[in-house]
Amino acid sequence: ASCGLYDESYLVKFSLEDGGEKEIQRENVEGKYFLEGSTVIGDIMYLLTWNEHALFTYNVTTFERLSEHYFPSEGWGLTKNEEENLLFATNGSNYILHIDPKTLEIVNTVGVYCWNNEPTNNLNELEYVHPYVYANVWLTNTVVVIEPYTGECVGYIDFTGVHTGGGEFLWLCVCALGVGLLRVLGLGGWV
After folding, report:
1. DSSP label at 5?
2. CA distance 82 to 46
3. I need a surface site. Which of 15, 87, 93, 102 has the fewest CB within 10 A?
4. Planar angle of CA 7, 53, 13, nearest 5 degrees
């Protein structure tokens, strides 16, 4: 996993044996980087930075940085389709960027248009659960369900009413909560 903020970004590995609460490995990242999206294919972890135009690769076991590549926009969310050997990224716009994990080049860009065919901006954290990408819309309680090759919105999950103890929006946690739950339940479609 990765956690972001300036001067506070790091990679972390947790033990799953005790409910994921025991940190077993941690690697701090230089303070000039704000880590955002991350995903793993095989033994390589891919990490986007928010505003520094960088896409890093790390060894998932040792946390050794393998490479740094130029990324042409802000980095928000990152996930993968291992069957197609493809990364999907967001940059805060209404686009899903398709990235070749070997070359780290953008090979396609797909616009997402939900709700009256309007651009669905602020696509943030992503998860891929075959055959769809689930993306939270930043600063909302909504996760949109997207066909990643056409940009078609096939549904959405509304988390309105789900709040923390203080009543704040869950906009930072909506995708992790909703899509993480879908992953745990093994659901391949949207609900």
Report:
1. S
2. 13
3. 102
4. 50
Q: Which of 108, 52, 94, 99 is nearest to 79 (CA)?
A: 99
Which helix (H) or strand (E) covers residue 180, if one does? helix 174-185
Distance (Å, whole) CA 49 – CA 33: 6
Sheet with strand 123-129: strands edge to edge:
123-129, 132-137, 142-146, 153-158
| pLDDT over 90 (residue 37) | no
Q: What sign does the dihedral 144-146-150-153 (CA atoms) show?
A: negative
Q: What does each C-alpha distance from 159 to 54, 83, 107, 133, 185 come to in angstroms?
A: 32, 30, 33, 17, 17
Would you give the distance in Å from CA 164 to the centre of its chain?
A: 22
17 against 106, higher pLDDT: 106
State how far the Cα of 146 lies from the Cα of 139, in Å rounded to an integer. Answer: 18
Tell me, letter by letter, the H, E, C secondary structure of 52-68: CCEEEEEECCCCCEEEE
Which residue, 121, 114, 77, 66, is CA-closest to 99?
77
Q: Which two tokens stand for residue 10?
A: 């790091």
**pLDDT score for 20:** 61
Count of residues making up the chain? 191
